[in-house]
Design goal:
By secondary structure, the chain is α+β, with helices and mostly antiparallel strands. The protein folds into four domains: about 280 residues, Rossmann fold (3-Layer(aba) Sandwich); about 60 residues; about 80 residues, no CATH class; about 180 residues. It is about 20% helix and about 25% strand. The protein has eleven helices and 37 strands. The strands form nine sheets. It has a seven-stranded mixed β-sheet with strand order 3-2-1-4-10-12-15, with helices on both faces. It has a six-stranded antiparallel beta barrel with strand order 16-17-20-19-18-21. Strand 22, helix 8 and strand 23 form a beta-alpha-beta unit. The relative contact order is 0.10.
């Protein structure tokens, strides 16, 4: 899954240049040629060099998240069994690190020295982990090994600007240097793993009025002259070996860091979700960890899609996560908080033991900090464990104040401004006034992150006023985002246990609408094009009947019912499979969309559960014939002012599989298709 354009990054939304150079992805595919992140034998050691650069000594480019990121990653590796004595953490803020780790400053010389020490202490079969959180950049290749392009660089704390005398960004770490380091270790049979949460270039995207901070240093800040000509030479030869590594987003996307709900603790979205997944996954493969991280990030404020590469993606991650759905309760306080994905208002069941038994009580989380939660009400004395029952009710849709994309377009937006609600500083969406209409950017405020027109527009329909158009589109957005949050909050917190329903997806590329080619495995990073078909094979892998529904969450926030169609049966007996197809039609722009597969276990004579009725606001309000407990409970979560009909707890285990679908330009919403 190499990409010929750029390497995935913290803040990229598209390439500034397109060079035939080896990309940082490809460079790190070479330098990080190793096995699944943590597949260690009983004798093998795992050593880690973790770098978090928040405070830059010369560059005006400080970040808030990296010191927290690197601390969280050290805790996560320790939780999976890595000896803190085998970790080196380079950060300007070493407070709170696991006892026993070696520390230092995140400057060039210390980073390279720590890498050399870790490699020198490693023998065949050992694993080296290199984690970097901070800025990256791109600089002209002055050695010629990029084939006439640009080096990708990481920026330590002492990185400065371009120095003509040396033909480089001062104190930057080049991909060439990392390759030399890695190759020496690989040549001795040492495994190397890279987790990079950084960006290589400023790509011209505009973040307008959003929350969060973009991690990007552009060439102007680095002072790279426009007339510097890269050297032309032969690309470095490819290196072989087994490897697995992850980046925070696709090469043409951007990534951000955000504050948690406490407003003070910042983390990179990728690092936060990756750490949550690694902590919980007991025996997951690296591909499963990536999938779960991607699903969690789909709920976040920025629509970024991480990427993983390597022949050992399917290998088991080293060590073990907790494997527990339950969290510790000590002294009446829950020892988990925002970092574990909890939020104020969530419901937890209290238990005496870590598994089994009847709940002693169900309570609400009153206050939630980064690492602890206060339990509301009376906590039974025997309560020592808690299990999440349901997430809090979603907050109403919040918009930022409208922002003009350009003051020079000469268009009058007075009617749109009057129609939009008052803005908030913590928005779900950012209205951007552009091209005579209103674009709805995500919380990051990035306009058209997936290409021109990929931020949904509010446009008036015939006979409609701007105020009516705003009301219509915002109702659809509020419903879609609320439903996504309700379903995510009702479907558990980890990848522990065996999935009740499995989903495999194949893509049938199109040569034109009505003409599809042979089926091939679906590659989420590659995405889909107009007229492509996606075919889902749904299989009941459990021992109980499952009622399965498939919904599609479009880039314009519309939730579309996919299956069952026309009131067809959707109950799968144990071992039974069903095929569901959809087609991407022409006429729309690029974007990130999602397939939702929802499964509810049922008794043979129970009412059929069809959750496609949740698709639109009108259908939800007119639930009509719904009589099953799950539908009624979800209805109460979607309409909190409605009567709960006696359902205060989630009545059955609802499972959800979310698959991100990347639409290429000119692709649009899916329609149900018949299998040829």
């Amino acid at each position: 899954m190499t990409n010929p354009v750029t390497w995935p990054c913290r803040t990229c939304s598209g390439p500034t240049r397109r060079y035939p150079a080896r990309t940082m992805r490809q460079s790190l595919a070479l330098l990080l040629s190793t096995t699944a992140l943590f597949t260690a034998t009983a004798q093998a050691e795992v050593r880690a060099v973790l770098v978090g650069v928040g405070d830059y000594l010369t560059l005006d480019a400080d970040l808030k998240g990296p010191p927290n990121d690197v601390r969280l990653m050290a805790e996560t590796l320790a939780a999976r069994g890595v000896d803190p004595g085998q970790m080196t953490v380079l950060t300007a803020d070493p407070m709170g690190l696991p006892q026993g780790v070696a520390t230092g400053e995140p400057v060039r010389d210390e980073i390279l020295a720590a890498l050399d020490r870790a490699a020198g202490a490693s023998v065949k079969g050992d694993t080296l982990v290199f984690y970097f959180s901070g800025h990256g950049a791109q600089a002209p290749d002055m050695s010629g090994d990029e084939g006439g392009g640009y080096d990708e660089i990481l920026l330590p704390a002492d990185a400065a600007g371009w120095k003509g005398a040396i033909g480089a960004v001062e104190n930057a770490i080049l991909d060439d240097e990392l390759q030399v380091w890695a190759q020496e270790a690989l040549g001795r049979g040492v495994k190397v793993v890279g987790l990079i949460d950084a960006c290589h270039s400023a790509t011209g995207f505009r973040a307008l009025g959003g929350q969060g901070v973009a991690r990007v240093v552009d060439e102007a800040v680095l002072g790279i002259p426009a007339d510097v000509v890269p050297m032309v030479g032969e690309p470095a030869p490819p290196r072989s070996g087994d490897f697995v590594y992850l980046y925070s987003s696709q090469s043409d996307q951007r990534s951000f860091e955000y504050p948690l709900a406490d407003g003070t603790t910042w983390h990179g979205e990728f690092t936060l979700r990756l750490a949550q997944t690694l902590r919980e996954a007991p025996e997951a493969s690296w591909a499963q960890v990536l999938a779960a991280t991607t699903e969690a990030m789909a709920q976040g404020p920025a629509r970024q899609m991480p990427e993983g590469e390597g022949p050992l993606l399917k290998a088991q991650v080293f060590g073990r996560g907790t494997g527990d759905a339950r969290m510790r309760v000590e002294g009446g306080t829950l020892k988990a908080g925002l970092l574990e994905g909890l939020a104020k208002g969530a419901e937890v069941a209290l238990y005496a033991g870590p598994a089994g038994g009847e709940p002693l009580a169900v309570v609400t989380l009153a206050e939630v900090t980064a690492r602890e939660s206060t339990l509301a009400g009376q906590v039974p004395e025997a309560a020592a464990w808690a299990e999440l029952v349901s997430a809090p009710l979603p907050e109403p849709l919040a918009l930022a104040a409208p922002v003009r994309a350009s003051l020079a377009d000469g268009l009058d937006y007075a009617a749109w401004i009057a129609a939009l609600p008052s803005g908030t500083t913590a928005p779900d969406l950012v209205p951007i006034l552009t091209e005579g209409t209103v674009a709805l950017a995500g919380a990051d405020g990035v306009l058209d992150p997936e290409g021109p027109g990929s931020s949904p527009r509010i446009r008036t329909e015939p006979g409609e006023t701007p105020a009516e158009a705003v009301e219509r589109v915002l109702e659809q957005a509020a419903h879609g985002l609320r439903l996504r949050e309700v379903l995510a909050g009702a479907t558990g917190r980890s990848l522990t246990g065996k999935a009740a329903v499995t989903v495999s997806i194949e893509r049938r590329p199109a040569n034109g609408c009505g003409d599809v080619t042979a089926a091939e495995p679906f590659d989420p990073a590659q995405g889909v094009a107009p007229c492509d078909q996606l075919w889902l094979t749904l299989t009941n892998a459990g021992g109980k009947a499952q009622d399965v529904s498939v919904l599609y969450f479009a880039a314009d926030f519309e939730v579309q019912p996919i299956w069952p169609a026309q009131n067809l049966a959707n109950r799968l007996a144990p071992g039974e499979s069903a095929r569901v197809g959809l087609m991407i039609e022409e006429g729309s722009t690029a974007g990130l969309e999602e397939i939702w597969v929802l499964a509810v276990p049922v008794d043979p004579d129970a009412p059929r559960v069809d959750l496609t009725r949740l698709a639109t606001p009108t259908m939800t309000r007119a639930f009509g014939g719904a009589s099953d407990p799950m539908s009624l409970w979800l209805e109460s979560r979607m309409e909190p002012d409605a009567a709960t009909r006696g359902f205060t707890l989630k009545p059955a285990p609802l499972s959800m599989i979310r698959q991100v679908v990347r639409l290429n330009p000119r692709a649009s919403a899916p329609t149900l298709t018949e299998e040829p």
